[in-house]
Amino acid sequence: MIQQRQNFDWMLRDLYNSAPGIEMIVVLSADGLRIARYGGDPDAADRVAAACAGMQSLVTAVADEIPATDGEMKLVLVELNGGYFYLMAAGANAYLAVLSDMVCEPGLMSHYMRDLVVRIGAHLTSPPRRNGQSV
């Protein structure tokens, strides 16, 4: 896992430098564990990862009520006073979260995020866990 985190540095830095206004980028597993981060402090990234797991679960539950969908989350966008929160499916059991200020237009940010996921989606995966261990 350590090697994987080191490999994420340049990938996340590329997104950070491409899109203006990013405060923090977090790659997380479906169960809310931080895999990697860029920007922000580690404790904040851990809190964001945990919150994202809850958000992903909520979105999946709501999607089940829309008959025309397959129930899989693609992108969540939350506009806040002064910023945005983005959460995107990024691979098997993995998600990409971005916190930004109001500078970057949401459509552009989601485009940058999707490009990153397409380029490195195979690396943005997290194996299922049982009792805290990868299976």
What does this structure look like?
This is Roadblock/LC7 domain-containing protein. Residues 9-100 form the Roadblock/LAMTOR2 domain. InterPro entries: Mycobact_SerProt_Inhib_Rv3364c (IPR053141), Roadblock/LAMTOR2_dom (IPR004942). This protein has 135 residues and is α+β, with helices and mostly antiparallel strands. The protein has a single domain, classed as Beta-Lactamase. The chain is 40% helix and 29% strand. The protein contains three helices and seven strands, in the order αββαβββαββ. The strands form two sheets. It has a five-stranded antiparallel β-sheet with strand order 2-1-5-4-3, sandwiched between helices. Strands 6-7 form a two-stranded antiparallel sheet. A hairpin with a 4-residue loop joins strand 1 (22-29) and strand 2. Helix 1 (2-18) packs antiparallel against helix 3. The radius of gyration is 14 Å and the shape is globular. The chain starts with a helix and ends with a strand.
